[in-house]
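anyone seen this seq b4? input:
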Amino acid sequence: MNLAFVIYRYFPHGGLQQDLEKIVCECIARGHKVTVFAGEWQGAGIPYADIEIIRPRGLGRCEKIAAFERKTFQQLAKGKFDAVTGFIPMRGLDVYFAGNDSFPAEPPKRTFWARLFSPHYYIEQKLEQEVFAPASKTKILYLTESQKRDFIRIYNTPEERFHLLPPGISEDRRRPDDRKKVEEIRTKIRQEFGLGRNQLLLLQVASDFTDQGVDRTLQAFAALPDTLYRQCRLLIVGSDTSNGHFETMAEELEITSRTTFTGWRDDIGHLMFSGDLLLCPARARSAGSVLIEAIAAGLPAVCTDQCGYSGFTAESGGVVLPEPFAQNDLNHMLEELALSPALLDEMKNATFAYAAGLNLYHRPQKAADFIEENFQCRK
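predicted toks r here
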């Protein structure tokens, strides 16, 4: 098959971008020809995939997205592809990968009226309507039931067009069965960050520090009593476009001596094997694959109910903070868990046992199966 994939912005480590890469690689491994259309591309290309950069012009991001959609639609309309899968909503898609929540359903960052009459809101909702309107023929691969409910409520999309994908994390996130190997990894990581055997390693992994609530994590860490604070180290793994805002916040909270912003690392699995608790107090996260990665690593988590995969966290023995979010709830929960290393150990064992019964690794295969089963006849 001759397949096309569309994404507006590709960069290493982004959750949506990693899904694209894995699905593309799976399709290529099955012998299909793949072209990826992108408006911006950072990092290395995908082996054996043709990458076509369509650089949009515009004064702001929303104008550029609209220009990218127009130009890409013109390319796709030539009709040489057997199936077109979009990682952004737009015209001309056979399949839409719903890696994000519905734009109107996202928690507003601006007042209602300012949001309603903004060009960004208009363009984003117009593009979503191209995919989700009842008359559209686009099939939808979605990640969580809350996404599906929102899309149907907002656009009245027929339910039969939705198809659920399982989680799809990398195998290297799975905690090894060899306890000796895990202990060696744990010792190495904890030595790197100057942690004693009985001290606690707290993690947050994020690519959008605001949406994923890094500020909430920093405030909770700063609120720990001094004796507990000195027994913990917080790692913020990842990076975003805030230009040092959160590092400055850590300085103002006077927690820099026990807080490390690591940037992106290639050993996130090892960090999770070595950690004691994952924090994800997100404001908005359509799925939250980091929660699934934590489960596979046997790492208990505290998250908000805004995370689409929060149900997995609750079922695995982790903690889900209710909405509306209250900073004191997170502060008290972190203090309670930091006071109870034995409870954290119980949660780790429960999390790892829960992971053994789940399909956590086959999203790319299921997505490729879906494309083949529904569009093979176009060859």
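The CA atoms of residues 298 and 353 lie 8 Å apart. The chain has a mean pLDDT of 92. kinda curious what u guys think
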